[in-house]
Design a protein that fits this description.
With about 280 residues, the protein is mainly alpha-helical. The chain has three domains: about 140 residues, no CATH class; about 60 residues, no CATH class; about 45 residues, no CATH class. Helices cover about 60% and strands about 0% of the residues. It contains twelve helices and no strands. The N and C termini lie far apart (about 75 Å).
């Protein structure tokens, strides 16, 4: 059987895309757009076929196989296609400037990518930059629902995650399963799924049961807080301003802002917003 020789031009393009991929993966935190662009370049002409596997004269059979090999298994298909979807926000008729996309938390970038290009209005893009992750999940889902019939519309969903002792987690799972069997949860209403209704019952019962104690604890904590002198407040604002300038100037600005919001830290979008 005669071996097929790879076209020289494609080999050249493959090497260039491979180099871009490796460079952007090495700087993944700050170059997710470059990583996505490399994925698109490799995918368009199946260039991974023209990059020889280590110790072989043959290229990779699939892009997924190639990416796993180049990243020592760190970049699976989910990470790979997430990067591609984020990069594609910056191209097309309704392209969003790269510097705007990088201001968004990664989850907001991916939520925005779910929305048809023609519906990515300037206002929606601004909300992707400014809204916390859970808030924008609701915003994005409402936009997606606009084009769906009522029976296919969905509510925004999020994961609940907490690290705790195995014993406590086991107890929680047992109680959660028991509450899921209650008539108040299995009432036939399919507007919300069973897990959501169960969680709402858990939190509602706990709040009602502990309401008085919660209010006392909140008041005690508030009363115990020392009053901060005006001079110290002004100094704090100046420090925050300097930190925010560094945050927004950083290559991974979107990720930094997302972490700040997830941790409950205030991120001012504009200096004048502090007034």
């Amino acid at each position: 059987m005669t071996n097929t020789i790879a076209p020289q031009q494609l080999v050249k393009e493959a090497n260039a895309a491979h180099k871009l991929f490796c460079e952007s993966w090495a700087a993944n935190k700050q170059s997710i757009l470059d990583l996505g662009r490399a994925i698109v370049l490799l995918e368009e002409k199946s260039l991974h076929q023209y990059i020889a596997k280590p110790g072989s004269k043959k290229g990779f059979a699939s892009l997924e196989e190639a990416v796993l090999a180049w990243t020592n298994g760190e970049c699976g298909s989910t990470k790979m296609y997430d990067a591609k979807r984020i990069y594609l926000l910056t191209v097309g008729e309704n392209a969003i400037p790269a510097d705007v996309v990088t201001q968004m938390p990664k989850r907001n970038q991916l939520q925005l990518a779910r929305i048809p290009e023609k519906k990515r209005t300037e206002k929606l893009v601004e909300r992707a930059v400014s809204e916390p992750i859970l808030t924008f999940a609701e915003t994005a889902q409402r936009v997606v629902n606009e084009d769906l019939p009522a029976e296919k519309q969905k509510e925004p969903m999020a994961y609940v995650s907490i690290k705790a002792h195995v014993r406590a987690v086991s107890h929680f799972n047992e109680v959660f399963d028991d509450i899921q069997r209650l008539p108040v949860v299995r009432d036939g209403d399919r507007t919300l799924d069973l897990e959501t209704k169960t969680l709402e019952v858990c939190t509602s019962v706990l709040r009602v049961w502990c309401e008085d104690e919660i209010e006392k604890a909140k008041k005690k904590a508030k009363d115990a807080q020392p009053e901060i002198p005006t001079e110290a407040i002004n100094k704090t604002i100046e420090t925050q301003s300097a930190e925010e300038e560094l945050m927004y100037a950083a290559p991974d600005a979107g990720e930094a802002i997302g972490r700040a919001e997830a941790e409950g830290r205030v991120v001012h979008r504009k200096p004048e917003a502090r007034n």
